[in-house]
Design brief:
- Chain A: The chain crosses the membrane at residues 30-50, 57-81, 87-114, 150-177, 197-218.
- Chain A: Keywords: Membrane, Transmembrane, Transmembrane helix.
- Chain A: It is found in: Cell membrane.
- Chain A: It is a multi-pass membrane protein.
- The complex is a heterodimer of chains A (230) and B (240).
- With 230 residues, chain A is mainly α.
- Chain A has one domain (3-229): MetI-like (MetI-like fold), CATH 1.10.3720.
- Chain A is built from ten helices and no strands.
- Chain A is globular.
- The termini of chain A are far apart.
- The model of chain A has no long low-confidence stretch (mean pLDDT 91).
- By secondary structure, chain B is an alpha/beta fold.
- In chain B, 35% of the residues lie in helices and 25% in strands.
- Chain B has eight helices and nine strands.
- Chain B has helices at 48-56, 93-103, 108-121, 137-150, 167-182, 194-199, 218-223, 228-234, and strands at 10-19, 22-32, 38-41, 63-68, 79-82, 155-159, 186-191, 203-208, 211-217.
- A six-stranded mixed β-sheet of chain B has the order 5-6-7-3-8-9, with helices on both faces. Chain B has a three-stranded antiparallel β-sheet with strand order 2-1-4, with helices on one face.
- In chain B, strand 8 and strand 9 (211-217) form a beta hairpin.
- The longest helix of chain B has 16 residues, at 167-182.
- Classes of the chains: A mainly alpha (230), B alpha/beta (240).
- The A-B interface holds A 125-126, 128-129, 131-135, 139, 143, 147, 227-230 and B 56, 58, 75-77, 79-81, 83, 86-91, 99-100, 103-104, 131-134, 147, 151.
- The complex binds adenosine-5'-triphosphate and magnesium ion.
- Magnesium ion (MG) binds next to helix 1 of chain B.
């Protein structure tokens, strides 16, 4: 049977191994987005609203870190988390937890940098009005985060897309262990090299659909926000 | 909640404002006390907006001193500002007003009814649920006025609030401003519309090229301007 047909069969038949992999991938990436957002959004907003010496350097650094090569992040975390490394006592190397950490590190700069840019632009627009309404620092931050919510959702989706599609970092710190730390991307890499094309193609197809869905969601958010807030 | 002290009189003492090498306002001394509306008049670029921003406390002078009721930097709890180009928050028209009410310390249960009354007052009751940024320029200016009134101010500073309005809406806004003045709110308003200056009887502060040229009762200013700059402005000439 041609490979692409058996790939389709795997998906349609709801192959349990395949769906376990999809579930792990999504779980790891969603957890990473949640963690990166919890830290990155307030930090991005804070960076947008404060002035201190060295701020421009931090802004440039954060923007540069958006393009961190996943394998380098993986390697750095591998050294930190390995038995002899400074964080070795946690014993999380080659577990899904390590993969979540790796992807969090990878997408934190994306979410923080996009939040900073968004909040800074909105602040430039709102500054006079909010000052005239005597809005304090906390109110300022919550108002800006709320009014920028649609752009921020887009930032989250960008982070999720990056996390779900990367292979280098999860491969190194997860170890690609069958049934435990194997994600869609690492499986595609492995199965392709083994010549097991149906599984690789099935997962590849699911990944593509996922990326399409994320972009559709980002687009929908934009349309929706324009209708709702003008 | 609200400071019991008054922000009036608002006193500018030898105030100047520079941006880099440019002088926007030069040595302005001025006392704004309770009473009739105060119209800041002058050609484009004469410094009306800059002067209003100083009066609001949005920018600090580079020279001289400003005091509000004798204090140097009271928070703007008793002042409200309508900007020349108001910025709408990304919320419905009513959401913009309730936001201003919340910032002014209005208890939650009073906000919806008061927002409704304020929108009614500026003629936007029918558009309460429309996203504010989709309103027309004139509607946005009226919403900005509602937002400013929501603060229940002692001093209301307005920067050409009728610049984008049609004649009927202009009259409506002037009536709101006059009734606010009658209810005891001190009006400080920039305008270069001489018809409007005449209708909003009060006093005129005439600016040209960043200098306070003349201060007089409205009719005296319009009928017997004492400076060459004011005469030229009234004739419709450019002040060079
Ligand atoms: N930040 C700035 N840097 C340099 N020049 C400035 C700055 N802000 C304003 N100006 C200039 O100062 C002058 C006064 O500006 P201002 O906005 O106060 O005038 P205005 O009387 O309100 O004019 P208009 O009637 O057009 O609203 C203008 O010539 C303007 O170009
Ligand atoms: Mg102006």
């Amino acid at each position: 049977m041609p490979d692409h047909l058996s790939a389709l069969q795997l998906i349609l038949a709801g192959d349990p191994a395949l769906f376990a992999i999809v579930r792990l991938s999504l779980g790891v990436s969603i957890a990473a987005v949640a963690l990166a957002a919890a830290v990155g959004m307030p930090m991005g907003a804070l960076l947008a609203l404060t002035h201190f010496p060295g701020r421009p350097v931090l802004v440039v650094l954060l923007n540069a870190m958006m393009g961190l090569p996943p394998v380098v992040v993986g390697l750095a975390l591998y050294l930190l988390l390995s038995r002899s490394g400074p964080l070795g006592t946690f014993g999380i190397l080659f577990t899904p937890a390590a993969m979540v950490v790796a992807q969090t590190v990878l997408i934190f700069p994306i979410i923080a940098a996009l939040t900073r840019q968004t909040i800074e632009d909105l602040w430039a627009e709102y500054r006079d009005e909010l000052n005239a309404m005597h809005v304090g620092p906390i109110g300022r931050m919550t108002t800006l985060l709320w009014d920028a919510r649609f752009s921020l959702i887009t930032a989250l989706l960008a982070g999720f897309g990056r996390a779900a599609a990367e292979v280098g970092a999860v491969m190194i710190v997860g170890g690609n262990i069958d049934g435990f730390t194997r994600t869609m991307t690492t499986t595609v890499a492995l199965e392709t090299s083994k010549g097991n094309l149906p599984l690789a193609m099935g997962l590849g197809a699911i990944l593509i659909v996922l990326v399409l869905a994320i972009n559709a969601a980002a687009w929908g958010t934009r349309i929706w926000s324009q209708r709702l807030t003008g | 909640m609200r400071a019991p002290e008054s922000d009036l009189p608002l006193v500018l003492d030898g105030v100047s404002l520079k941006a880099g090498a440019t002088t926007l306002l030069r040595d302005i001394s001025l006392t704004i006390a309770p009473g009739v509306p105060c119209l800041i008049v002058g050609p484009n670029g004469s410094g009306k907006t800059s002067l209003l921003r100083l009066c609001m406390g949005l920018t600090a002078p580079t020279g001289g001193r400003i005091t509000w009721g004798g204090r140097t930097d009271p928070a703007p709890t008793r002042r409200a500002f309508v900007f020349q180009r108001p910025v709408m928050l990304r919320r419905a028209a009513s959401g913009n007003v309730t936001y201003a009410l919340a910032q002014a310390g209005t208890p939650r249960w009073q906000r919806a009814p008061r927002a409704k009354a304020l929108l009614q007052r500026v003629g936007l009751a029918d558009l309460a649920h429309r996203p504010a940024r989709l309103l027309s320029g004139g509607e946005q200016q009226r919403l900005a006025l509602a937002r400013a009134l929501a603060r229940d101010p002692e001093i209301l500073l307005l920067d050409e609030p009728t610049a984008n309005l049609d004649p009927a809406a202009t009259r409506a806004v002037e009536e709101i401003v006059m009734s606010a003045a009658q209810s005891g709110i001190k009006i400080v308003m920039a305008s270069h519309d001489l018809g409007q200056v005449r209708r909003l009887v009060g006093e005129v502060i005439f600016l040209a090229r960043g200098t306070l040229c003349e201060r007089a009762a409205t009719n005296d200013f319009l009928d017997h301007p004492s400076t060459a700059e004011a005469r030229a402005f009234l004739r419709g000439d450019l002040v060079v």
